[in-house]
Amino acid sequence: MLGLMQSQPLLISSIITHAARHHAHAEVVSRTTEGALHRTDYAGIERRARTLARALLRLGVQGTDRVATLAWNGHRHLELYYAVSGMGAVVHTVNPRLSPDDIAFVLNDAGSGLVFADTSFVPLLAAVAPLVPGVRAFVMLADPAEMPEVALAPGQALLCYETLLADADEDFAWPRLDEEQASALCYTSGTTGRPKGVLYSHRSTLLHAYAVNLPDVFGLRSIDRVLPVVPMFHVNAWGLPYAAPMVGASLVMPGRHLDGASMQSLMNSERVTMSAGVPTVWMGLLQHLRATGGTLDTLRRLVCGGSACPPMLIDTFARDYGVQVDHAWGMTETSPLGTYNTPKPGMAALSPEDAKALHYKQGRAVPGLDMKIVDDAGTELPWDGATFGNLMVRGPWVTRRYLNADTDATDAEGWFATGDVATIDPHGLMEITDRTKDIVKSGGEWISSIQLENIAVAHPDVAEAAIVGARHPKWDERPLLIVVPKPGRAIDPAALLASYAGKVAKWWTPDEVVVVEQLPHTATGKLNKLALRQQFRDFKLASAAD
C-alpha cells in the first residue's frame, strides 16, 4: 500500500520561489568586480531569474543543455544558478583557476554552448575561445557601459548580460521537471589527471540543502547573514546558495575580493554572522587581524573545509575573537558536504583538552550519508579512533558515475572510494589522516602528513607547511618538511624539528626542513602535493646514508 501524501518533485526552482514568497526582502549583497556594493533581495533574484530563463530560451537553450559560468560569487551568478537549473537546463560552473587547457577540456567535455563570464576574466576568455569551437557565445556579466572588448574565435558572439535581460519578459513560469533530472555540473580539480565531471540532480541538491540546514550542521536561520567565501565555482559554494534562500538567510557575496582586509571590512559592514571557506583564506584573515588589531564585530561562526584545518586556527579564532570554527569534510563527488563536527551529549563530561582534540576532527556523517573505513582488501575496520583505513561513503547526494564515463565509480553496494585515509572514533567522529596518494610510507608504516603539517604551522615562525615523502634507500620514504616563513621571520630548522618532541612518535619526526618563499596551490586553494612531489622527487636526504 502506498501513502496518501501529495507527490511534489524536489526541484531547485522551489527554493527560490519559497524565498521570494516568504522571505522576499532578505538581502543579497554583492561586491562587484569594480568594488562597489550591489543590493537586492530574494524577490528581485527570483524575478530576474525568470527573466533570464526567458532570455536563455531566446538564445536557443533547451532540454538539458549545459550553460557554463566563469564567475565570482555575486548576484548575477546566483540568478544563473536558479534560471538555468529552474528551466530544466544544467548550470556548469567552471573554475577559472584551472589552466586554459583544462578549462577548454571541461567546456568541450560538458558540451557547453554558452559561457557567462565576469569581466575580470577577459584575458582568460581570449585564451580559451579558440579551443572551444562548440561555444557559440560568451555573455559578459556586465552593464552595457562596462562591456569589454574580447578577441573571440570566428563565429563566436559576445553578448551583454543586462541587455539580454532588458530585452526579455519576466512572464516565465517554472516548469514541473523530473526531480532526477540533471541540474548542475561541477568538475574535480584535476590534480591527478584530467578533471572529471560530477553531474548533480534536482533531487540530490534539494536533499543536500535540507541536510546541511539541520541544527547539527550549518543550522542556518532567517536571521543569519551568510558570507560564502568558498567560490560558487567550487562545488556550488558548498551548497550555501541553496541552503541560505531555503530558510531566508541573507547572502553576502564577496566577489573576487578575498584578501584578509576585504573579508574583515565586508564581514563587519554587512553584519555577517556565518562564513565558510578553505583554511588558506582564514589564515589570511587571521594574519590581517593580528597585524592591524582588527576585530570581528558580528561573526559567530566560521566553517572550515576543503583541506584539514590547523588546530592553531581553531584555537586562535575562539580565544582571541570569540568565533567558533567548525570543521567539515566533503568533496565534489559528495555535493559536497559529507561530515560536520558538532558535539554529542556524551562528550559533555570530557576535559577541555579532550574536547578540543575531538573538535579538531572532520566530524560525523551528515544525516542521509553513511561512511566506513576499510583495509586494502575491502574489509571494514573498527571505529576505535586509532585504526587507519580507506574512507568510503554512500548516500543520495554522492556521485554514482562521472560524466561521460563508461563504468560506475561505486562498488556493487554503492560505496564510493574517496581517496582519503581516515580514522573513525567511537563517537562516530571521522578524522582525515591523509590522502591515499599523500601519506608517507616509511618502512611499511604510515605517517600522516596532515598531523605533521599542523604541528609545523603552529610554530610562531611558520606561515605555511607541507610534508612530502622523500625517497630513502632503507625506509622507502621519509617525511620532508617544506615551510614558508612568516613575513619578517627566519626559520631555524633544528628548532622547528625540536618542536615535534612529545607530539608524535619520534620516528614520525621529519628528517629535514626546506625553507621556500611560497608553496604551490591547486585551483581550489589546497596545497598542490602533486607539484611538490614532482619538484622534490630527486631530493637527497642527509639521512639517506643511515
Question: What does this protein look like?
Answer:
With 546 residues, the protein is of the alpha/beta class. The protein has a domain at 438-545: GMP Synthetase, Chain A, domain 3, CATH 3.30.300.30. The protein is globular, with a radius of gyration of 24 Å. Helices cover 28% and strands 23% of the residues.
User: What is the strand content?
Assistant: 15-25%
The value of Rg in angstroms is: 24 Å
Question: Portion of residues in helices?
Answer: 25-40%
**Uncertain spans:** none
Q: Which outline best applies?
A: globular
What labels describe this entry?
16 helices; 546 residues; GMP Synthetase, Chain A, domain 3; nine-stranded mixed β-sheet; globular; seven-stranded mixed β-sheet; alpha/beta
How are the SSEs ordered, and which strands pair?
Elements: H1 13-22, E1 27-31, E2 37-41, H2 42-58, E3 66-70, H3 75-87, E4 90-93, H4 100-110, E5 114-117, H5 122-128, E6 137-140, E7 157-160, H6 161-166, E8 182-187, E9 197-201, H7 202-212, E10 225-228, H8 235-238, H9 240-247, E11 250-253, H10 260-269, E12 274-277, H11 279-292, E13 301-304, H12 311-321, E14 324-330, E15 337-340, H13 352-359, E16 364-365, E17 370-374, E18 389-394, E19 416-424, E20 430-435, E21 440-442, E22 445-447, H14 449-457, E23 462-472, E24 476-485, H15 493-498, E25 512-515, H16 529-535
Parallel strand pairs: 1-11, 3-4, 3-5, 4-8, 5-6, 6-7, 10-11, 10-12, 12-13, 13-14, 24-25
Antiparallel strand pairs: 1-2, 8-9, 14-15, 15-16, 17-18, 18-19, 19-20, 21-22, 23-24
Helix pairs in contact: 1-2, 1-9, 2-3, 7-9, 10-11
